[in-house]
Amino acid sequence: MYYYLIIALQVFCLYHLYKNRNPYYWFFIIFFIPLIGCVIYLITHVYNKRDAENIANEITHIINPTKKITDLEKQLQFSDSYQNRINLGDAHLENKDYNNAITCYLEALEDTSQNHFYVIKQLIEAYINIEDFKSVITYAERIKAHAEFKKSRSQFLYGLALEKVDRLDEAEANLKQIDCRYSFYDERLIYAKFLLSRNKEEQAREILEEILAESQHMTKPNKRLYRATIAEVEGVLKSV
């Protein structure tokens, strides 16, 4: 049990390090001196009294991912609230249980007193993963007038769904919105491939070259994070 606790601490610290873009040398400290490195990292980068319970919960969820679902189900049974239902849906989505996530979100939508932008955004994410493109389009069109929809991942997924149903001009108009410099590298690569599929090589090349140029100015953590994306950009550029 002690061994598994150390592994869980390592996983949590490495996840926190990666998520918060902390100095890369901590990777070596946590990896090569697990217990001491983790304790020092927790004290210097994570721990305070208010966060202690959250840290314990996250470590538990790493060891037993289904516990989070079980806890949220019990919480929902105790208090059948709008937020509790969304929390359970989010946990299912994180666990890649898309059908149960959709069920939770659809039940949340029944509460007509709420602003459902967040729930619909999450529904779009779930539906795209089960390739229900018509539902993606249906729900995206419910929120596309919302200011936060513009240049968002939801709009990008809407564009992908439109492509799947052969509404190509509309797809391109929505995918284009994600083409923002120094961000959305994966999405911009997909957009460039879409343009290539429509024989728009010059536009696609421009996007790919911009991504490649931007990669030269990435931080070291981002270079590691997007290494595969940049490699694919280089490969696609060579074939254009």
Describe the 3D structure.
This protein is mainly α. It is built from 15 helices and no strands. α1 packs across α3, α4 packs across α5 and α13 packs antiparallel against α15. The longest helix is centred in the N-terminal third of the chain and has 19 residues. It starts with a helix and ends with a helix.
Number of helices: 15
Low-pLDDT residue spans:
none
Query: Helix share of residues?
Result: over 70%
Rounded to an integer in angstroms, the radius of gyration calculated over CA atoms is: 21 Å
User: What is the element string, with H for helices and E for strands?
Assistant: HHHHHHHHHHHHHHH
Beta-strand proportion: under 5%
The number of E-state strands comes to: 0
Can you lay out the helices and strands and say which pair or pack?
Blueprint: H1 2-20, H2 25-32, H3 34-46, H4 52-63, H5 65-78, H6 82-94, H7 98-108, H8 117-129, H9 133-143, H10 153-164, H11 168-175, H12 185-197, H13 201-215, H14 220-225, H15 227-239
Helix pairs in contact: 1-2, 1-3, 1-4, 2-3, 4-5, 5-6, 6-7, 7-8, 8-9, 8-10, 9-10, 10-11, 12-13, 12-15, 13-15
Brief description of this entry?
The chain contains 15 helices and no strands.
Keywords, separated by commas or semicolons:
about 75% helix, mainly alpha, about 240 residues
